[in-house]
Write a structure and sequence with these properties.
The protein is α+β, with helices and mostly antiparallel strands and 148 residues long. It has helices at 49-59, 104-109, 113-117; strands at 4-11, 18-21, 23-27, 31-32, 44-48, 72-75, 86-89, 92-99, 125-129, 133-136, 141-143. The protein has 3 helices and 11 strands, in the order βββββαβββααβββ. It is globular and about 40 Å long.
Length: 148
């Protein structure tokens, strides 16, 4: 199975709702156009669909992935231990700068979720946008080859 972008979420304001969209414009050095968080090293946040589904099964819940408050939901690719690697989604590249640690807001959504997300990068990853361009739900997701 080819890894793919399963969903895109844009946050209009800090602590605001996560709006699902079919496509989004990524801006190099900034993040997702229209998203509340812009600039810095944490321009985009990403989670894995498989891990989200596994956590929901374990916690006997059916909360949507937007509960995590990440911007991009990917399927078929592993994010754990990828700091410094470059992820290509459609025509854009994102450099992974680290693990997105779960906060107390996860337990506000579902008691036990914060602890469930804590190990093995289950809370996802964050990164900076290297190339401006459009991403669309269904786009291929893959790791860039490292230059030697």
């Amino acid at each position: 199975m080819q890894a793919r972008l399963d969903a895109i979420y844009v946050k209009r304001m800090k602590r605001g709702p996560m709006d699902p969209v079919k496509e989004a414009e990524l801006i190099a050095g900034q993040g997702i156009s229209g998203n509340a968080n812009q600039g810095g090293l944490r321009q985009v946040t990403i989670i894995e669909k498989e891990l989200w589904d596994k956590m929901m099964d374990h916690l006997k819940s059916d909360l949507p992935p937007s509960t995590r408050r990440a911007n991009l939901l990917v399927e078929g690719i592993t994010l754990a231990e990828t700091r410094g690697k470059t992820l290509r989604i459609g025509e854009c590249r994102i450099r992974i700068n680290g693990e997105t640690r779960p906060c107390e807001r996860m337990d506000e959504a579902l008691p036990g979720l914060k602890d469930e997300m804590d190990p093995e990068w289950r809370g996802g990853a964050f990164g900076e946008v290297l190339d401006s361009g459009k991403v669309v739900v269904g786009d291929e997701v893959k790791w860039e080859e490292e230059e030697r």
